[in-house]
Structures are given as structure tokens and as C-alpha cells.
Amino acid sequence: MVSRKRWHLPGLLLIVAFLLQTLISTTAAHDCSAEEEHVFGENSRNDEWEMDEFKEFCQLLKKRRESPQSSSSKVVDATLCEEEEFDVAGLRMLFVLMLMISYGALVRSVLKFFKLNIPYTVLLMISGLLIGYLSTNFCTQLFTYTSIARIPPKVILFTFLPVLIFESAFSISPHTFMRSMVQILIVSFPGMIMATFATGLICQQFFAAYKWSFVEASLFGSIVSATDPVAVVAILGELGTSEMLSVMIEGESLLNDGVAILLYEMLIEILTCEVKGDLVLYIFRKFCQITLGGPALGFVMGKIAVYCLSLIFNDATVEITITLVAAYMTYYVGEDILGVSGVMAVVALGITMGAEKTSISPEIEDFVHHFWAMLGYFANTVLFMIVGILITETALSKIDIEDWIYLLFLYISLNIVRLLMLAILYPLVSRFGYGLTWQNMMVMMWGGLRGAVGICLALDVYDNETLCQQLNLGPKFLFQVAGIVFLTLVVNGTTTKMLLEMLKLTEISTGRLQDMANAVKQLENAQYRTVNMLKHDRFLADSNWNYVDKYTIIKNPYGKKSLPSDLPLNQSLVSIKANSQDYLTECPDCHTLVKNEPTNLEFMEMTEEARLRVLKALKVSVWRQFEQGVLVELAVLNLVNIASATEDKPLRLVHASDLRKYWRINGCLPWIKKRITKHLGFQDEVLPPMPKNSCRRAVWWLVTRDCFEGVIILVILLNMIPAIWESVYIYDDNLQTSKFENVFFGLSLFFNCIYLAEAILKIIGRGPHDYFCVQKSNWIDIIVLILGGVDIVLYIIKIKATSVFVFVKLLRVARAVRLLKPIVPRLMLFVDKKINAKLFLGYDVGKGFVTAAEDVIKYLPQMVDHPKVMHKLKNVLERERLETVREMGIMQKDHPGIAIAVKTHHASRAVLNQMKESLMELKEDGLVDAKESDIIMIKLEENMKKLWNTPPSIAPAPPESLLENVFWIGGRPEIFQFFHERAILLSFAYGDIIFNAGERSNGVYIITSGMVKIHYIPTDTIVKKFDQDGEIPCMELFEDLTFRTSEDDFFSTGTVLGEQSILTNQLRAAVVKCETNIFAYHISEAVMREALMKFDDKFNSLECCIWRAVGMRVALAVLPKHPSYSSWTMDKIRLRLEKSCVPIGDEFNTIKVYDFIADILIIQGKVKDSFSNDIFFAPQLVPRGVSKLELIHSPTIKTRVLVIAYDDVDTASAPAPEQEPSKIALMKHLDAVVEQGCRISENDRTSKGSHPSKFGHRAKPRKAKRDLSMKPGFPTSVTRRSHRSRGFSTTAVNDEVGDVKRRK
């Protein structure tokens, strides 16, 4: 046993060494044969020598196993070492491989440096041709270094083809590919077959010297018809032409390679007489293998790979390895094991994984794409170099002058055949997908380049044992295919760009010209602002700014482009933007400026260009949200697919109706839940009240135990055995009595007694009403019990077995339905989980769209230059955003647990993202070592991974928790207790008005359930006060900071209404209307005044806290639009605002800007620079050059500012005695804010159970038919407030609260 274990490792190493030695020796023997005989392409393997060597090797292994001493292993190893010397051929191949890759990098750099419009692969192939020519005719020593080009063609296909196919399929647009699928299939399958046999017919008729039969000519046609448009696709990508055209050409290439290999295998087996059986059946089987087997295998492997990727989080090595193994494993399994098309399988694999890219970790996705781009670069570089070497070393042997003539004729014929094929299929192809124009058809014809697949197949024919003896096949195939590859690459590849320009497919549209001009203008503004800012830097002030301007200037790349020349003169002039409404055009003759408006056609083109850009920006925002972890995978895929589908619909954006299907629960799941739970009585069991009688109380305790139900279930299972036995026995004996009848009767009597006792105990313990009316499933037990009694009676009175009697016996098996009782709750749990998961996805989709729409609206002025187009798109986006918010509010009202789960997921990931960013900053600043940083990062990623399992529904917290979470209440128990004792929970019906415009507020409302709509209509008075005094309108909307346009928005649970009016006594500027039935805490104006007087701490008064809450809302609207914060995320801005305060008091009428102050935001009124006397109005950031400012109070409003400190300010440190009192006061204000935030965080971490338990208790829930207190998220007593007559009448809701309904 010990010696066998010793042998395993050395034996395995010997086997591996033998296999490597055989491979190297085979290559070396091939090289030597080529050098000595100069017969290129001849197979030099010696099968007899290999067999003898293998027998000798087996004898050495046997000798090794028989020797128990380790010394014998040394003898065997020495023997092996003496017999074979090390061959450097393998190292030369590796060395040449590295040289090829390095040369490819050099070629790319040269092309980029000299800006040459030559396809990269063309130069590589020409370089390979030169190397092969030199190694054959001038430098025989170089021939030993080109042995990499003489490896078997199958090895080339298995090595490079999976990489090239998967890289193309994985990077292709799934939406565009699927929409163009029918077009691609038509061109790839019927088109490829037509091209194959048409080429074969031409070759048979005109290549008379070759004497090819039709099968041989068709075999050549299948080889030479496979396309490889790498160069053309690269040119299309560089020129920015239609994505549809690129996908059509690349998709056709991916599929017709598989069809070409299929036709090649079929024809070569027919030619070599290897087909057994019916030829038609063989062709049908082969066709099914490629059309069904390959794609099915690729789809299955793709799903497996996606599942494996979904289990990994932020591990680049593992995720890249999975994609690499999936590509090669799919190709190998398809080709070598299952016998299906490996090409089709890898194509399906790439498309499947590309459509589900969200399975890859967001942080890793770029690495995966870069990895495959690098592999594609390596494969193309090596492959085209090998093709060039093969052509001159192998294909040019035994070539006559007629072969060159045939080559030119074949090149012309192939282009004509491809053009005719596309023309014949054009009527059909143009009616599917995106359609097909004649210009695109011409590009597809000219872009049908040939590549490595044809070369490898021709080499396979050249090396075929059966066909290699025919000189008119192998050598001719190889020469003609190699010549076509060279001509298509050199001629078609280099002239494709010229063809695109001739067909006007590279013209830049008006919208793109304006986009480029707008982008350059934005960059010029950024350069101007940055230069002006740096001129004030004390270290850079003496820089040579002329050189800075020279080095940083950027010119419009489309500067020399113009609008199409066929437009009228006044339409082709360059427009100069004069203001937000008008465009002026300078006449080239009189140099006067005239107003210029685009034509309807130009306006539609600009709108379409802007629409596509907006949709692209929506997708970018969605992917950014996914990278930040706030959107789940399915939500991202659905949103991206919706946006991609909308791109195909002219002049249309994403609508809320497109998302509505994710918010509706349809299908069988709701039906199952409703029917089973309601009609069969399988609701969640509610125990009846405990009886007062002591005897009944004992029985109640017994029948309500789970163990009692378990015993009954066990009895039913035991009863099923004789019941089924008797039923089978009766059926087999044809209703005849037997000796077992007494046994059956005894068992039936026994079990019926148990069932009767169960029914009596439940009726006594639970009560008759609960047994017969509440638990409806008990009627099944009653019916079966009656049938059992009838059976016993019939047996006692000796009635013969009749059909009715037998039917009664058989019905006893119906008691098995009782077994569903423990199963149904679990089934309902599963159904609820699925429903909640769908609703979770729907809410997440809505949240993602709202966030994406807000991002696009924010950057829309930078994306669209024309004001009319911009306003049109903005109105549509704003309308759909509001509709989506409204739908989400209704969903939150109907399913509060779903909304809470989504919000919890988003909040958790936002916190983890900020923690991760803080850790990275600590690492970059050198405050934490790399090892400790990696350990903490692993912990953070583990927490991120836990968010994958976020429950789809979380029970809402009680309203008291929402009250405590109010910004100016939380963290201070005394304030919470004060408001908790005085706040009243009110209910409002749909359509009720909470606040009306032009009225004074009667208090503060905190929404605990439901949704309201806030509608703002500007008035002359509001706009005048805003312009003169900087008075911010009293409302909660801050989208338009000019307050000159009407606004609408929806707010739901957690929103606080009426804070500003309590502070300023302003009249309401917006209407607050209920969109659903809502519940809200009401804190009256008198209570708020009392609280403001009571909690008046100098540095942390309640008034300061409320002003800070208002100021932070204003800041979140102002800061993202400021250049200093434009690149900041909202989470980062919120983090900066955590150290902010609103100082109140006479000592703060003048504020000095100290070094710890980052910014000062005017949130109400106006301020003045103490030195320059410049006046700044709210809402505005005070310029950073201001060092001291004065607050200007008006008779009606007091000015308030939000002081924002830097993050690293230590507010808790003791102030120095020499510091100014105002500075010390500001530091204390900030310290109070930080301390309150710490208390809130500590309360959140330590609180367990309900919040009222810390500050008070809730009343016990009253017993009612539909007691509101039994529902999560609602208190025990609710007051209803009716606003129909604005009389503020209140009525108590005592017995029943109706379901929330909304009017259509």
C-alpha cells in the first residue's frame, strides 16, 4: 500500500513528461522534414516510431512499479534522460509568439502615431507574407522560427476560434442582435448555402484545368464563403456609423462561420465516402445539430456560467476565469463530445452572458471586458501573422500562371455572387428587424472579408489523408483561399472607408454637429473657470498663462464640417446662440445678424438626436446605480431593455406606462392565494379567546397545541392504509364480501371514534362558532365522519353491498384532504414570497427610473443646446417621473412592506458605499496600511453580499418611530416625549386638502401612511418678494430655483409639511392635496410655538434645528447645480451637510468666514459683503472670496444662512482663550449638531423593541371587527379630519377603518 502511494506522483509526472515530449518531438520532426526535403505542409509524424516509443515507455513504467526501492526510480529517470535530449523548438515557438504580440503592439502604435487609415489586420497579414517569403527563399534559419505557423489547423481553430467568437458575441448589443436575429439568420443560412453552391457551380464551369466535380467545387465554395470582417467592423466603430449595420455584419460573420464548418464537414464526408446510410437523413441530422444542438448547448452553458458568476462577488480572478473556461469548455464539449456546432454554441453562450451582464460584479465588469478585448487582440495578432506566413510557405508551392488568372476571376466572381445573394434576399431581409437600405447592402457586400476560418479549413483539406494525393484539390484549395483572404483584406479592407464616404454613411448629422459644438463650449467654459481660479493660487499665480492657454486649448473636431450642401443658404449657416430663446445667423455678404429658426425637418432631426442621447443617458444612469449597488440585477436589465426598445421608436421616450406591468400582479399566483385561502378557509389561523370555564380552558389548551394537530395528522396517515387497501380490494372483487370485511369494519369503527372525539374536543374547546363558521375546512371532516357513521350503520343492519354502499366506503378516502392543512400555509408562504419579490422588483424598477430621470433632467441643459428641444424633452421626462412617483406612492400605500424593503436596501448600500469610499481615502492618505485596509474591505464586501438576500418585504415600523425619525426631533428624548404626548394622528380621505395656497399653516404634519401631491403656481407677489428680498416661497418644492414656473411633485411616508411656515409666518405658496387615503401626525401651531419657547438652548435650540432641516433641503437643490459640487454624488453632498448649522441670534447678524467654514448658503433673505457691499440673494452660495458678510433683515422676513464646515473640523476640542467669541459660538453650534447626530446613531444601534416603551406606552388595542391596531404601522386610536368645508371638524374612528381606495 505504501509503495503504491509512492508511485502515484512520480508516475503521473512521467506520463505528463511523455505527452509533452511527444508533442515537442512531433513538431521537431515536422520541422526537420521540412528543412531537409523542403516539402512544405507534409505531415511528418511517424506512427510506428510513436508506438515503439510508447511500448518502451510502458515497459519502463512497469519496471518502475515492480521495484520497491526508490533507487530504481533514479535509474529509470536517468534512462529516460539519456534517451531524449532537450529540444528548443518549443521555446522557439513561445519566443516567436511573444515577438508577434510585440510586433502587433508596434504596428498599432505606428498607425495611431501617423494617423494612417489602414486596417490593423492588413499590415499584420502583409508582414506575415514577407516573413514567410524570407524564410522560404532567403533565410533557411528563419524557417525554424516559423514552426508556429505549421501546427495542425484543428489546433488553430480550437485555440483561437473560441476567443474570437466569444469576444464578439459577448460585446455585441443583445437588444440590437435579437431584433436583427431574423435578418442575420436569413443571410447566414439560406444566403450562405446560396453563396456556397453558386461559387461551386462557377468554379466547376470555369476552372477547367482543375477538373473539379460539383461536390469538390461546392466543398471549395463552403470554405471560401466564410466571412471574417474584423477590419470592416473596426472601421465602422471608428466612424460611428449605424450600430445596426455593425451588428448585421458581425452577426452574419458569427453565424456563417458555423454554417461554413457544417457544410464543409458534410461535403468532405460525402467526398471521402464516409457517409453511412441515407444521405437525406444524414443531411437532416447535421442540420439539426447546428440549428438546435449548438445553440441549446450554448444557452445551457451560458445559464450555468451566469449562475456561477452570481455566486461570486468582487473577485476579478474567479469571474474572469469562469468566462474563459465557459468559452473553451462550450466549444470543446460541442465539437468533440456532443458532435454539435461549437461555433453556434459559443455564439449562444456569448449572447446569453452578454444579455445578463449584471451577473458580473459591477466593479469587475470593466476588467472582464478589458480582458476579453486583450485576448481578442492577441488572437487576431497571432492569427493574421500565421495566415500570412502560411500563404507564402505553403500555398505558393506548385503554382502555375493559370492559378493567378483563376484567382483574379474568383475574386470578382465572389463579390458578384455575394451581391446577387444579398439582392435576392433583400425583399425579405428589408421587412424584418431594422430593415435594410441599399447603401447598407452595398457595405455588407464589400465588407464580406475572408479570414482565418477559410485558411484553416483549406489547410485541413491540404492535410487530409484521402485528399492530399490529389494535386488539383489540396494545393489549389489552399492557394485560392489564401489569395482571396489576401485580396479581400488588402482591397476591400482598405477601401471600405472610401465606400462609406461615397454612400454618405459617414456624414455627421445636424444634431451631432450641435452636440460637438456644445461639448467644446462646455470644455472651454471649464477651462476658463479653472484658469481664473488658479490665478488666485499663491503657488501658481506667477505661471505663464499664455502657455497655459496654448497647452489647454481644444478645437472642435467637427469645426470644418458643415450642414449638408443641398440645404438652402440660410439653413447651412452656423448659428450663434444669443439667448435662451433666439438664434442669430451672420450673413456672409452684409455681415448682419438675423434671427434663424430651424425648419421642421431640422427640428425633428435635432429632437431625434437629443432623444437618443437622453435614452443613452438614462441607461448610463441605470448602470451607475447598479455599480453603486442600489439596483438589483433584474431591475437593471428590465430598465435597460425598456430603454433599448424605446430607441427603436422614433420621437418617443420611456413612459410610466412601460413600467406599469412590473407594478401589477397578474397570473395564477393571486388566483391561487385568493381561492385557497378564502374559499377553502386556509387563512392564517387566529386562535379564539380562552374560555372562562376552567374545564373548557383545559380543553382549549389541548386542541390549540401543534402537537394535537400532529397526532391527528398521524392518525389520518394510518387510516389511509386500510382505506386504500379496502378500496382496491372492493374494486378487484367486484363488490363481493370476504373474510376481511370484519377487519375493515373494526378499523373503520376505531378511526371514526378518534375523529368523533377530535370533533367533540374542538367544539368544546374552541366553541361551535369557531369550529363551524371560522374554520371552514372542518366541514370536510364532518362530511367524512357522517359517511363513516352511515357505513357503520349499513354494516350493522346487514345491508348487502350495493353501488351506493361502495361509494360511501370509497368517499372515506376524502379525509386525505385534511393532509393539505399543514402544506397550505407553506404553499401560501411561497406564493406570498413570489408576489412580494415581483412587487419588490417593480418598486425597484420605478425607483431606478425616477433616479435616472432626475439625473438626466439635471444634465439636460448640457446635453441639448436648442432651448425648444430641451424644454420639450424636459417636460416629457418630468411628466413621466411624476407619474412614476405617483404609482410608487400608491404601491407603497397598498404594500408598505415592499417599499420599506427597497428603501432599506438602498439605504444600506449607500451607507456601505460611503464607508468603502472613506476607507479608500484613508488608504490613499497613508492612515491605514494595505493589509488592514484589505481586511476591512473584505468585511465590507461581505456585508454588501448579504444585501443580495434582502427580504422582499419588511413590516412597517409603528408611527412613533416615524415621529422620532423627524430631523429636529430625533436624538433628544425630551423633545420626542413632548411631541409624542401632544401629536394627534389624523386620517384624510382621497382628495382632501391639507394646505391651501394663500393660507396660513395651522401646524406641522408628518405623513405616516399614504401620498400627497404638492402643486405650486407662481404669483406676482411671490416672484416680487423673491426678487426684492430673497424670500423663498413657503413650500417643499425646490426644483426650479427661480420659482417662476409651476411645479408638481408627490410625497409619501416620512414627509414633514409646514415647517417653514411655522418659522416665518409666511402664507403657503403651494397646495397640498391627498392622492390616497393618508394618515399623518398633526402638531398644532400652538404646540409648535410652545416647543419653540421651551427648547431654546442658545447653541442647539429647536428653532435652529428646524431651520437646519429647511436649509438642508434647499442645499440639496442648490449644491448639485453649483460648479464646485457638480461632480459630487448626492450621498457625498449629504455627508458634507452633516456638519452644518443655522446660527440664530444678534451676535450672528455679522458672520466672519473662518478657516473651518467650507461654504455659506443663503436659505432665506439676502446678505451683503462687508467690504465690497455686494448683495447676494437666497438661494445662493456665498462666493468663497467673501471674508465677512452682514445679514440684511426685511420687515417681513429674517435672513437665515446655512454654515457648512469642512469634514475634518474638530468641533469638540476646547477653544483657545484668544479666539473670537463669534468663532467660539459657531464652533459650539457645530458641536451641538455633531453631538445630536451621535445620539441619533446611538439610539438607532441600541433601540430594541418599540419606541414608545422608552418614553411612554400605547393604549391596549380595542377589540373591533377590523381593529386598526392589529395592522402594522398604525396606532390604536385615529382621528379623522374632514376638509370638505375647511371647518376642521374631527370625528373619532372607533369600530372600523375602511380599506384604502383611490379614485381613478
UniProtKB/TrEMBL annotation:
Keywords associated with the record: Cell membrane, Ion transport, Membrane, Signal, Sodium, Sodium transport, Transmembrane, Transmembrane helix, Transport
InterPro entries the UniProt entry points to: Cation/H_exchanger_CPA1, Cation/H_exchanger_TM, cNMP-bd_dom, Ion_trans_dom
Compositional bias per record (Basic residues), positions renumbered to this chain: 1254-1265
One BP term from GO: regulation of intracellular pH
Lipid bilayer topology: Multi-pass membrane protein
Region Disordered, residue ranges: 1241-1304
All residue ranges annotated as the Cyclic nucleotide-binding domain in the record: 988-1094
Keyword Ion transport carried by entry: yes
PROSITE patterns hit by this protein: CNMP_BINDING_3 (PS50042)
Domain of life from the UniProt record: Eukaryota
Pfam family, one: Na_H_Exchanger
Subcellular location: Cell membrane
A cellular component term, taken from the record's GO annotations: plasma membrane
Transmembrane intervals: 93-111, 118-135, 155-172, 184-207, 337-355, 367-392, 404-429, 477-495, 711-731, 743-765, 777-797
MF-aspect GO terms: monoatomic ion channel activity; potassium:proton antiporter activity; sodium:proton antiporter activity
The keyword Iron appears for this protein: no
Signal peptide (residue range): 1-29
Protein's UniProt name: Cyclic nucleotide-binding domain-containing protein
